[in-house]
Design brief:
mainly alpha; globular
Length: about 280
């Protein structure tokens, strides 16, 4: 499921003001209404919840984002270390938890009102998404590797600008050493969705639903006993970022800083902290 879907929906609309806030709130409400086939009363309550989340968002997100950007910019400028990356990880974790908490609090009472037919509808929607992922996983291994390499390079170049051919060759070779965890992650996501579905079908009330959603959020990095641990995956991610950073020249590092501040400016505009 990539359980952070609730947080992602909030991130798509937070902080917009005036007309844009109204459009964003209506869009998210419509997406959720379609996802769960909500009735009119449930849709109205969803809209009210979305409005409350939008109102809270600037105070929750703004200061945390400022801190993350400042820490990251210092690391880019002075020479990135693993200690820097650990500090950024912790800051991001705190931000995500502070965003997820209110979203789950608002979502639980609404999800607790779902009928069995509405749960069936949502389950089918999730199944369709999982099946799409499963189809991608069934592609030949060499095609999947090339796709991962392409996306890896594209993601880096969004920050650094065009890479030199020698840098791209080294990075493509580096990706070949990554374990392909796609199937394991899919199984974990499906399992978490089943657990939430089972609780919803018992119609236990908002508190039990809230507890299950929060459990799923807290365990989102647990992909089961056959997977690498979350700590191992995070360590690999830090190692990868340090490897990339070590390949960059001064101009590319400067461009990464520029891109960071461009993203920060967009977030502040979304939060209504600066004029659009």
């Amino acid at each position: 499921m990539r359980f952070a879907w609730l947080v992602v929906l909030l991130a798509l609309l937070v902080g917009c003001s005036g007309l844009m806030q109204n459009i964003g709130a209506r869009w998210v409400t419509r997406q959720l209404a379609d996802e769960f086939d909500l009735n009119d009363a449930q849709t109205d309550e969803t809209r009210a919840s979305v409005d409350r989340l939008i109102e809270k968002a600037p105070g929750v997100i703004g200061p945390r984002v400022d801190t993350i950007v400042a820490t990251t910019d210092r690391a880019i400028a002075k020479g990135m270390t693993e200690q820097d990356l650990v500090a950024i990880e912790r800051q991001v974790d705190r931000l995500l938890d502070e965003v997820a908490g209110p979203v789950i609090d608002e979502a639980a009472p609404i999800l607790a009102t779902l009928s069995d037919a509405q749960i069936d509808h949502a389950a089918e929607r999730f199944k369709a998404r999982f099946d799409e992922v499963r189809e991608k996983l069934a592609e030949p291994a060499d095609e999947r590797l090339e796709d991962r390499q392409d996306k890896f390079i594209e993601g880096i170049e969004e920050w650094t600008g065009e890479l030199a051919q020698s840098q791209e060759r080294m990075l493509r070779a580096y990706v070949t050493r990554f374990p392909d965890d796609g199937a394991i992650q899919l199984a974990a996501d499906e399992g978490r969705v089943r657990e939430i579905e089972q609780v919803l079908r018992q119609h236990p009330g908002p508190e039990a639903v809230r507890n299950q959603l929060w459990k799923a959020w807290q365990e989102r990095e647990d992909w089961g006993p056959e997977a690498r641990s979350a700590a191992q995956r995070r360590a690999q991610s830090r190692k990868t970022l340090l490897y990339i950073y070590g390949l960059l020249d001064a101009k590319q590092k400067a461009q990464a800083s520029v891109h960071l501040h461009e993203l920060h400016a967009k977030v502040k505009r979304f939060l209504g902290l600066v004029d659009s």
